[in-house]
Amino acid sequence: MTDAVTDQLIEANKRYAGGFTDPGMDARPVRKVAVVACMDARLDLHAALGLSLGDCHTIRNAGGVVTDDVIRSLTISQRQLGTRTVVLIHHTGCGLLGLTENFRHELELEVGQKPNWAVESFTDLDQDVRQSMARVRTSPFLPHTEDVRGFVFDVTTGLLREIHLADSPAP
Ligand SMILES: [Zn+2]
Questions:
Q1: Where would you tag: which of 94, 108, 121, 149 has the fewest CB atoms within 10 A of its CB?
Q2: Could you tell me the pTM of the whole model?
Q3: Residue 115 falls within a domain, yes or no?
Q4: By residue range, what is the domain housing residue 154?
Protein backbone atom coordinates (compact mmCIF):
# COMPACT_ATOMS: atom_id res chain seq x y z
CA MET A 1 0.00 0.00 0.00
CA THR A 2 1.44 3.32 -0.98
CA ASP A 3 0.57 6.74 0.32
CA ALA A 4 0.56 8.71 -2.91
CA VAL A 5 -3.01 9.50 -3.84
CA THR A 6 -2.47 8.85 -7.53
CA ASP A 7 -1.20 5.37 -6.74
CA GLN A 8 -4.35 4.79 -4.69
CA LEU A 9 -6.40 5.85 -7.70
CA ILE A 10 -4.52 3.45 -9.96
CA GLU A 11 -5.21 0.61 -7.52
CA ALA A 12 -8.90 1.54 -7.40
CA ASN A 13 -9.00 1.56 -11.18
CA LYS A 14 -7.68 -1.99 -11.32
CA ARG A 15 -10.56 -3.11 -9.09
CA TYR A 16 -13.01 -1.10 -11.21
CA ALA A 17 -11.77 -2.59 -14.47
CA GLY A 18 -11.89 -6.05 -12.90
CA GLY A 19 -15.67 -5.80 -12.64
CA PHE A 20 -16.19 -3.75 -15.77
CA THR A 21 -18.06 -4.93 -18.82
CA ASP A 22 -18.17 -2.98 -22.06
CA PRO A 23 -21.48 -1.08 -21.94
CA GLY A 24 -21.49 -1.00 -25.74
CA MET A 25 -22.41 2.67 -25.92
CA ASP A 26 -21.32 5.25 -28.44
CA ALA A 27 -20.25 8.74 -27.38
CA ARG A 28 -23.71 10.33 -27.71
CA PRO A 29 -25.24 10.93 -24.26
CA VAL A 30 -28.38 8.80 -23.87
CA ARG A 31 -30.44 11.56 -22.21
CA LYS A 32 -29.16 14.29 -24.56
CA VAL A 33 -28.21 16.59 -21.70
CA ALA A 34 -25.06 18.54 -20.84
CA VAL A 35 -24.52 19.53 -17.21
CA VAL A 36 -22.22 22.47 -16.46
CA ALA A 37 -21.23 22.47 -12.79
CA CYS A 38 -18.64 23.62 -10.30
CA MET A 39 -15.69 21.31 -9.69
CA ASP A 40 -16.54 21.28 -5.97
CA ALA A 41 -15.67 17.96 -4.31
CA ARG A 42 -18.99 17.83 -2.43
CA LEU A 43 -21.06 17.80 -5.59
CA ASP A 44 -21.66 14.24 -6.84
CA LEU A 45 -23.57 15.03 -10.02
CA HIS A 46 -24.54 11.51 -10.98
CA ALA A 47 -25.88 10.68 -7.53
CA ALA A 48 -27.54 14.08 -7.02
CA LEU A 49 -29.35 14.03 -10.37
CA GLY A 50 -30.06 10.32 -10.79
CA LEU A 51 -27.74 10.03 -13.74
CA SER A 52 -26.18 6.80 -14.97
CA LEU A 53 -23.13 6.03 -17.04
CA GLY A 54 -23.62 7.29 -20.57
CA ASP A 55 -26.50 9.63 -19.72
CA CYS A 56 -24.92 13.06 -19.96
CA HIS A 57 -21.95 15.26 -20.62
CA THR A 58 -20.49 16.82 -17.50
CA ILE A 59 -18.51 20.00 -17.98
CA ARG A 60 -16.91 21.25 -14.78
CA ASN A 61 -14.67 24.10 -13.72
CA ALA A 62 -14.13 26.40 -10.74
CA GLY A 63 -17.55 27.93 -10.11
CA GLY A 64 -19.34 26.17 -12.94
CA VAL A 65 -19.10 29.44 -14.84
CA VAL A 66 -19.77 29.65 -18.56
CA THR A 67 -16.38 30.54 -20.02
CA ASP A 68 -15.35 30.43 -23.67
CA ASP A 69 -14.04 26.93 -23.07
CA VAL A 70 -17.40 25.81 -21.67
CA ILE A 71 -19.05 27.21 -24.81
CA ARG A 72 -16.49 25.22 -26.82
CA SER A 73 -17.49 22.01 -25.02
CA LEU A 74 -21.22 22.76 -25.31
CA THR A 75 -20.84 23.47 -29.02
CA ILE A 76 -19.22 20.09 -29.59
CA SER A 77 -21.75 18.46 -27.25
CA GLN A 78 -24.70 19.82 -29.23
CA ARG A 79 -23.38 19.85 -32.77
CA GLN A 80 -21.38 16.63 -32.79
CA LEU A 81 -22.86 14.53 -30.02
CA GLY A 82 -26.54 15.29 -30.05
CA THR A 83 -27.32 16.96 -26.72
CA ARG A 84 -30.34 19.28 -26.58
CA THR A 85 -30.66 20.35 -22.93
CA VAL A 86 -28.27 22.39 -20.77
CA VAL A 87 -28.36 22.28 -16.96
CA LEU A 88 -26.20 24.76 -15.01
CA ILE A 89 -25.32 24.11 -11.37
CA HIS A 90 -23.65 26.45 -8.90
CA HIS A 91 -23.66 25.67 -5.18
CA THR A 92 -23.65 27.12 -1.69
CA GLY A 93 -20.27 27.54 -0.05
CA CYS A 94 -18.47 27.91 -3.39
CA GLY A 95 -14.78 28.76 -3.25
CA LEU A 96 -15.34 31.53 -5.80
CA LEU A 97 -17.77 33.41 -3.56
CA GLY A 98 -16.06 36.47 -2.20
CA LEU A 99 -12.95 36.05 -4.31
CA THR A 100 -12.36 39.17 -6.40
CA GLU A 101 -10.56 40.07 -9.58
CA ASN A 102 -7.89 41.35 -7.20
CA PHE A 103 -6.78 37.71 -7.18
CA ARG A 104 -5.46 38.28 -10.71
CA HIS A 105 -3.58 41.37 -9.58
CA GLU A 106 -1.99 39.49 -6.70
CA LEU A 107 -0.98 36.71 -9.08
CA GLU A 108 0.60 39.22 -11.41
CA LEU A 109 2.58 40.77 -8.56
CA GLU A 110 3.76 37.34 -7.43
CA VAL A 111 4.72 35.71 -10.72
CA GLY A 112 5.37 38.68 -12.97
CA GLN A 113 2.64 38.06 -15.50
CA LYS A 114 -1.07 38.63 -15.65
CA PRO A 115 -3.17 35.54 -16.36
CA ASN A 116 -5.05 35.80 -19.65
CA TRP A 117 -8.18 34.40 -18.00
CA ALA A 118 -10.72 36.16 -15.83
CA VAL A 119 -11.16 34.82 -12.30
CA GLU A 120 -14.96 34.86 -12.85
CA SER A 121 -15.51 35.38 -9.16
CA PHE A 122 -18.95 36.33 -7.88
CA THR A 123 -20.63 37.58 -4.74
CA ASP A 124 -24.24 36.78 -5.69
CA LEU A 125 -24.82 33.11 -6.49
CA ASP A 126 -28.26 33.56 -8.03
CA GLN A 127 -27.11 36.41 -10.23
CA ASP A 128 -24.14 34.42 -11.46
CA VAL A 129 -26.42 31.51 -12.39
CA ARG A 130 -28.55 34.00 -14.35
CA GLN A 131 -25.50 35.36 -16.11
CA SER A 132 -24.39 31.84 -16.97
CA MET A 133 -27.84 31.02 -18.41
CA ALA A 134 -27.73 34.23 -20.45
CA ARG A 135 -24.29 33.38 -21.83
CA VAL A 136 -25.55 29.99 -23.01
CA ARG A 137 -28.80 31.35 -24.42
CA THR A 138 -27.10 34.10 -26.40
CA SER A 139 -24.23 32.05 -27.77
CA PRO A 140 -24.25 32.11 -31.57
CA PHE A 141 -22.53 28.72 -31.69
CA LEU A 142 -25.25 26.73 -29.93
CA PRO A 143 -28.18 25.50 -32.02
CA HIS A 144 -30.27 24.46 -28.97
CA THR A 145 -30.84 27.23 -26.43
CA GLU A 146 -34.54 26.80 -25.62
CA ASP A 147 -34.04 24.26 -22.84
CA VAL A 148 -31.49 25.91 -20.51
CA ARG A 149 -32.14 25.84 -16.76
CA GLY A 150 -30.00 26.93 -13.83
CA PHE A 151 -29.80 25.82 -10.20
CA VAL A 152 -28.03 26.34 -6.91
CA PHE A 153 -27.15 23.08 -5.13
CA ASP A 154 -27.19 23.27 -1.33
CA VAL A 155 -24.19 21.29 -0.08
CA THR A 156 -25.82 20.86 3.35
CA THR A 157 -29.18 19.46 2.19
CA GLY A 158 -28.38 18.01 -1.23
CA LEU A 159 -31.30 19.91 -2.73
CA LEU A 160 -31.34 21.92 -5.94
CA ARG A 161 -33.02 25.32 -6.00
CA GLU A 162 -34.01 26.56 -9.44
CA ILE A 163 -33.03 30.06 -10.53
CA HIS A 164 -35.27 31.78 -13.02
CA LEU A 165 -33.92 34.21 -15.57
CA ALA A 166 -36.73 36.68 -14.98
CA ASP A 167 -36.15 37.00 -11.22
CA SER A 168 -34.62 40.32 -10.31
CA PRO A 169 -31.40 40.24 -8.31
CA ALA A 170 -31.66 40.76 -4.56
CA PRO A 171 -31.63 44.49 -3.69
ZN1 LIG B 1 -17.80 25.87 -6.28
A1: 108
A2: 0.91
A3: yes
A4: 25-163
